[in-house]
Amino acid sequence: MGDDHSAARPLRADARRNRERVLQIAQEALASDGLTISFDEIARRAGFGVGTVYRHFPTKEALFEAVLLGRIERFVADARALATAEDAGRAFFGWFARVVEQAAANQALCDMLDGGSQAGPQVGLRPGSTLADDFGAALGRLLARAQRAGAVRADLTGRDVHDLLRGCLTAERRSLARGGAVRMAEVFCDGMRARTY
Amino acid sequence: MGDDHSAARPLRADARRNRERVLQIAQEALASDGLTISFDEIARRAGFGVGTVYRHFPTKEALFEAVLLGRIERFVADARALATAEDAGRAFFGWFARVVEQAAANQALCDMLDGGSQAGPQVGLRPGSTLADDFGAALGRLLARAQRAGAVRADLTGRDVHDLLRGCLTAERRSLARGGAVRMAEVFCDGMRARTY
DNA sequence: GTAGAATCGGAGAGCTCTCTCCGTTTGTCC
DNA sequence: GGACAAACGGAGAGAGCTCTCCGATTCTAC
After folding, report:
1. Domain A1-58 - what CATH class?
2. What is the pLDDT, as a whole number, of residue A140?
């Protein structure tokens, strides 16, 4: 996806270098500014004409996906790896906290897991996309197992948890203080834990 | 604020009628579409030229504030009224749930309590505004009292709770299912409750 | 009914954003 | 070094937005 130099002839050396640079700058720009950053601005920061950037990535979304999809896939893979962990509760809470923590450090990841900010483009995780389904399914499996083990309230659905995740990330993006998401996740996790009384 | 017919001569009858209609349509539009709705669109829905709407409200923000500030003030007043309630925990959790519930039914209120969505204009609750301070202070007092009464975890700050509030509203705006915010608030409140173990 | 003030309507200025087009520059291969 | 394809740069088209301006219309007072 975005790798249009796989089948056809290889890119010219300068073009490949420039493509890498665009990706790197876009990565930084997305992390600090989120999905609302403009294409022009990324080109400017990278020191290229906007036409050059479009040559490598045909749309704004294509560039953003090239930068971000891999990150989400990692979350899905992590969840799958934890699907047989010994302590199901620990696996679930740990995964949740890790996703929040990593996304909190990256505006664009927040925007993306947040369902695509109203403002920015819909990237990657729009409802119905394969990746969104995978993410939801992976989360659902971890949750179900933790519930069966009695570690998480039985009345929570996967969608509830996804909403809670979004909520945590919102805190990070909006709050005046950094670290809001992680703090919030703590409270959330307490709320999710199965009551013993 | 927006009431420019208070001191000077009264508005002509048709103008007053039109002003009311603009407010009503804007109210509906904001509730359903949030702060990102365009001024042109509101004028179109109301059946007026855009110039007419600008005659009554000099900027987009002025119109939005005319519609929304009263709602926030109500929340602040409610909190003040509860400041001497018998059951401090009940007062706090009840107020929190009520704010979430009401805001959840109104996109623009969500956007606003959310600190002004990145996209839309900053309306009313921008940090440092009097209303934002009032809101924060009212929330802080309810919280402190509930904590003194042992009903809420002692380690939560007012900012934490404001973040949690934002998080709930995010769920409402982004989730595919309506009612996400209220659901989330339940989990939150459980997480906020002081541990008895 | 009429004069004159108040109000309305909407074209358009000016901005930002995405994306295209094509003349200019650069890399590659001989 | 020269020829030619590949890649670059950035002006500008086109769309959407906020807000202004002023001729056309409507209300009100007499």
Report:
1. mainly alpha
2. 96
Neighbour count for residue B77 (Cβ, 10 Å): 12
Query: What's residue B4's pLDDT?
Result: 42
- Architecture of domain A67-197 in this structure: Orthogonal Bundle (1.10)
Task: Out of A114, A177, A188, name the one closest to residue B191 (CB).
Answer: A188
Read off the pLDDT of each residue in B164-188 and give the average, rounded to a whole number. Answer: 76
Put simply, the answer to whether B119 touches A115 (Cβ < 8 Å) is no
* CB of A11 closer than 8 Å to CB of A18: no
Rounded Cα gap, residues A142 and A120, in angstroms:
30
CA distance, residue A160 to nearest chain B CA (Å): 7
Say if the Cβ atoms of B164 and A171 lie within 8 Å: yes
- Give CA separation, A159 vs A20, A136, B140, B183, in Å: 37, 8, 31, 11
CA distance B160 to B169: 14
Give domain limits for chain B: 1-58, 67-197
Residue in the structure block whose two tokens are 């709320």? A191
On whether the CB atoms of residues B103 and B169 are closer than 8 A, the answer is yes
- Quick one: which residue's CA is nearest to D8's C1'? A52
Q: Which two tokens stand for residue A83?
A: 């699907």
Binary contact (A163, B156; C-beta < 8 A): no
